[in-house]
Amino acid sequence: MKKIVLLIVLFLLSFSLVAAVDISTSKTDYSGGETVTVTITDCAGTSIVEFHNPGGNVVDIKSGEGSWSTSYNTLSDSADGKYMIEATCTNGAAPPKNFCVDAPGCVSSVPPPPDSPSVPVSSQAGGSACNPNWSCDAWSFCGPNLMQTHSCIDLNNCQAAKEESRPCEACLESWVCSVWNECSAGAQTRACYDEHFCETTNLKPALQKGCNAADPVPPPVRISTQLPPPYVPQAPAVVQQSFFSKAWDNYKYYILGGAAAIALAVLVLLALHIFMPKKVAYNLNELKQWVRKEKQMGTADPDIREILKQNTGWTDQEIDMAFESSQQPSRTIKNTSA
Questions:
Q1: Which of 25, 155, 182, 299 counts the most CB atoms within 10 A of its CB?
Q2: Whole-prediction pTM value?
Q3: How many domains does the chain have?
């Protein structure tokens, strides 16, 4: 009798522990792109939480300790309808919790009794209904923003095409390299790029190696023949310049400046020669006669000297000689008959 009572007490105790575990969400109706916050309470030890899509497939798994919270992004799966959350703890499992994604009221809907006749969908709400059938391509690579995207189309054409995104782990580099180019100066080079565009270089392969050296590590994910190796330009041939060519290259501005200065000086001298008044010079006898005539006409000596200086090229010494000669009386040679 005591054993039976003990078994009953243990059964009731275990049942109370199982019933104590609970799953709760902030609400039951969600749309694409929202985050479902899930709280696990009264769970002993480690607990495992599974998220199932409307088809029953597991789309996410989370783990925690004791009473804890986690989240689920509704873009993690493209299916619309009723999702289910299951939690398994050390002290038992919690009753499943349901929520809706792009299907308002799916949790509260009650299926018709088994014996009731089936009702066409078009007559349930007084009109026609269309059930979308989504077909999505593969998720993109995890980019540097730690998000993945893919595009979905409704095969039943009930809704417009959409693009979904979800968070992902750190971006994984995927380097693709060209073949090594020909040996040049004892080395070979190649070109590489990260097809995932992670913007990191932790796994970037080496771009240069010795001609006879083994391929360095880390190796690329693959070798692409469509990616040309980097172009190595040939060294230009050295052209020997003549002395005059070198002089012109090094001193052409000085040469041009000197030539311009010489040309300017020639032009200035030519202008002076053309436009400066010229002093007229006569022979000394003519000067003496001219001075004598001017004095006979009553012109003063200083005026005569000033006229000669301004208009002739006679020097002061020659002018003095002309004045001295004008002061001497002229001699007339007479012929006497024998």
A1: 25
A2: 0.32
A3: 4
